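User: Watch each token:
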Amino acid sequence: MNRTTLSFLAGLAALAAVTGFATLSPPQAAGTAGTAAELPVERTSLLCPAPSTSDIAETSYTSFTPVTKGAGSGGKAELKAAAEESDGKSAGKKKAAKPVLAPEEPGKPATGDTSGGDASALVGTAEGEFAPGWTVQETTEVAAGAGRGLQGVNCSAPDTEFWFPGVSTAADRTDYVHLTNPDDSAAVVDIELYGKDGALDSTLGEGITVAPHSSDPILLSTLTEEKQENLTVHVNVRSGRVGAAVQALDDKLGGDWLAASTDPSGSLVLPGIPKDATAVRLVAFTPSDSDADLKVQLASPSGLITPAGNETLHVKGGMTTAVDLGDVTRGEAGSLVLTPTDTSVPVVAALRVVRGKGDDQETAFIPATRPVGTRATVADNSAKGTTLSLTAPTRAATVKVTASAGSEGGEAVSKTFTLKAGTTENVEVPTPTGLKGTYALTVEHVSGGPVYGARTLAATADGVPGFTVQTLPDDRGMVAVPEADEDLSVLQK
């Protein structure tokens, strides 16, 4: 093999590590075989939406990177305002915003905070040893007003397509789609809304321009005159890329962030319904022209059960379907499992979950999510108010849960759990030894079938049971890079 061939393969490996592409397939000669090596990604980015317009909002940011074997040393991570600041000297010239937080080392959380209603959307970049598995949690407390309670969201990577079942344009809801553009060129975005009868008439959602290094909150009720309680939003990026999340604010039921559902799939898992949920609503949508018929099951601590009266769900093609499941968990840990009754049709779905009664109610959302996979992490946990829910919907599985060192002190602790097939368990979360500050929880798949997870944060303020739920999809901190194990000299020809 000559130098050109070696450089070509080295370039492929570097590209995979930097971009996070799942696989790369260089040309191979007949009779050769390649095996994939797992390498840590070397660069990643995350976007955090503007947290609140409330003057009394208090927002915290927590950054964490798990220690990753093979990640080497060096690099950095920082989170700063999406918009560049004026340098104060020359008209039109900008300077980089100061970081809101900059972690010092993997394995230890870093925290920052803002207050009031003028906090900006944030753009984060991590390189080197800080990149694999990097996660940032944005948590906001709002004491009063629309959306009061606890709002939380995992800052997400930029992408080109997002699905949000569970949004609303009803009179008592104020829902925004936050679009954040981290790049040097403008992004062009289409926002489509689908209700109970199909696509809603609207031209205002077409060709929305998001300027470079900026973030736009789009009020959904300005895109259509129709008032519907249950809608699905499809964000499609024509050019560029954006981060997207929905902020759903209710006049009476508080509010929270709705993260995007996992890609349309025939089977879905929505993990971590709080055991004291007083109302659970399932919202589903299929982009297919064909209808979807789904079996609805609850993975409980004792196994899969079928909710009485809601054994199946019929979703018409191109239309949003919603069903109220009531207090489906009945005081036990639970996760919803959706599977096709016959032919598989791709579906997206989310749950709206309510806790409390009367005037003391609060809302959170649980989108369908990817499995934990190799590893998943969630930050901003506290000694009290953290619940980790894990489910193994198809086969028994074993996972390792690690509580990191605290942001202000303490030592990491790990514990192993075995989950029975078809069950959900609120596991006894390990707490770091000598904990000071907040900590991160990392879940690693050890053996068995796929595992899905969610973390609930709860905090009561003035008697109102505030809470927020974040799912734990695979962190995609590793990338498969092909290794040639045969003579590739044919590439020289």
